[in-house]
Structure formats: C-alpha cells, structure tokens
Amino acid sequence: MKTVIAQHDSDTRSVATEEPVRVLVVSDDLPSATDLASSDPDLLWNPDAVGVVGSTCSWDLLGAVTDAPAADRITEHLLRPVLDNRLATFFLPEASLLTANMLLAASRTGLPFGAVLGWVGSENTAEAAHALRETGEFDAYEDVLAFDAQDELTQGSVWETMQMALTPLATDTVFDALSRPGSGRRNAPAPFGTLHGPAGASSSAAVTVHVVRPVSSPWREITSALVEELRLCAAECARPTTIVELGTYGKGGRR
C-alpha cells in the first residue's frame, strides 16, 4: 500500500538505529484519509476534512517564501487554476510576477497571507512596493513600478487574472490553514519547520506528517505547493527523511 519514493540517505541503518525517523506521507483519496485514525500522524494537513478528520497543523506559506525563487514556485501553484481561461493565460506572466512580488513583500515584513489577498482585492500595489523598497528587495520593487507604469487596460486585466485565482481563497478556513505561527503554537522539527501546531504537541525530532490532497479539492494547488516545498526542504536536510505517496484508493504508486 505504501511506496517509498524518496529517502535522503542511502544508509538505511542510520535511519533505523541512529536518526529520528522523519516521514512525509501524501495521499489523494478518501480511503487513505479514513485510515488516518489508525495511523495517528503527528501532524495532519487535511483542510477538506476528508474522512471527517480535520487538520492538526497549519502551513506558514509566507514563511516558506524565503527568497524570490521560492515566491515564484509557490505563485505557479496559486495561479494554476486560471490556466483553463484563454484570456487570463495571456496575462499570466505579468500576473505571476506581481503575485510573487507581493508574496515576497508580505514575507519580508511579517504580514499574513490575508494582506496579499487584500492588496489583490483592492488592486493596490503601494504597500507592497513600499515593503519591498524598505527591505532591500530592489529588483522586485522595480518590477512593481514597471507594472504601475503600464496602461490601465493591461493593469486591469492583470488584476482580474490574479483575482480569478486568489479571491476564492479569501475565507477564514484559508487564513487558519496558512497562518503565521503565533503564541501557543510550536513549529515542527526540520525539514517540516514551516508547519506548526498546538504548543502541547510532541516536540520529538521523530515526526510523521500526513498531507491529504484530494483530486477534486479547491485546495489542491495550495496543497501541491506545500508538498513541493516540503520535498525541497527534505532534500536539503542533513538528516534522513522518507517520503511515501499513496495513490488512488490506497494503491501505492510512484509519482
């Protein structure tokens, strides 16, 4: 049922006898999620409450935006829902650049994801531009100024493209799932440090994270962004991490 698709250490003996076990499980179907009650992961990302089991952690999405390339990667997932709209795809490159720069601005100044949604909804670049300039992100700042210099028709089309993708995320559920860690919250150990749960949760370095990613979920692209970032962190982590993917209806399969 389970297939190991990545392990950041060829010496499996160290995994078993020396290193705390770190496991990332990704599933995309209801039966796999229903089995969570028995598997009892340390942290569960399941905003759709598949199997009537809710999330036990949040993802600090903006905390994952450590630099411009990270902002670009996450933006690619966030704007993917507009790919079916031919007109929107024409403005997708500029919409992606502006979205990534806004994510970077919010990340650098410690703002929540809701701030980005607010800028997009009000079609306002001023706060993001100011944040980028004040934090030394001058290339991104110049990109925003270049956008502001474009004609109103182009700007309006870019904003509309961004709003098509991001406005559906303006819900309390999204804000909770993508929140910054506050008081009473504890970050997970590496390589899952951008996830955080209640402070009373186990602080053991041996941790299992289960991410549920239903095929039809409106969260799918955000969840895909989360999985990609966790994979990258696992690849860069000095300690071994095992990644397991459960395919359709519980059948293991390589991705």
Spatial extent as radius of gyration: 19 Å
- Beta-strand content: 5-15%
- Category from helices, strands and their pairing: alpha/beta
Biggest sheet strand order reads 1-8-2-7-3
Order of helices and strands: EHEHHEEHHHHHHHHHEEEHE
**In which range does the helix fraction lie?**
40-55%
Shape: globular
How many distinct folded domains? 2
Average pLDDT, all residues: 83
Stretches where pLDDT is under 50 for at least 5 consecutive residues are 1-17, 248-255
The count of β-strands is: 8
Number of helices: 13
Separation of the first and last Cα atoms: 14 Å
Keywords: Plasmid
Outline the structure in words.
This protein is of the alpha/beta class and 255 residues long. Strands 1-8-2-7-3 form a five-stranded mixed sheet, with helices on one face. Strands 4-6-5 form a three-stranded antiparallel sheet, with no helix packed on it. Strand 5 (185-187) and strand 6 form a beta hairpin. Helix 5 crosses helix 7 (92-108). It is built from 13 helices and eight strands. It has helices spanning 12-17, 30-34, 36-39, 61-64, 68-78, 86-90, 92-108, 113-122, 126-134, 138-148, 152-166, 172-177, 220-236, and strands spanning 3-7, 22-27, 43-45, 58-59, 185-187, 195-198, 207-212, 242-246. It folds into two domains: 3-59 and 185-250, no CATH class; 67-173, no CATH class. Helices cover 47% and strands 13% of the residues. The chain is globular and about 55 Å long.
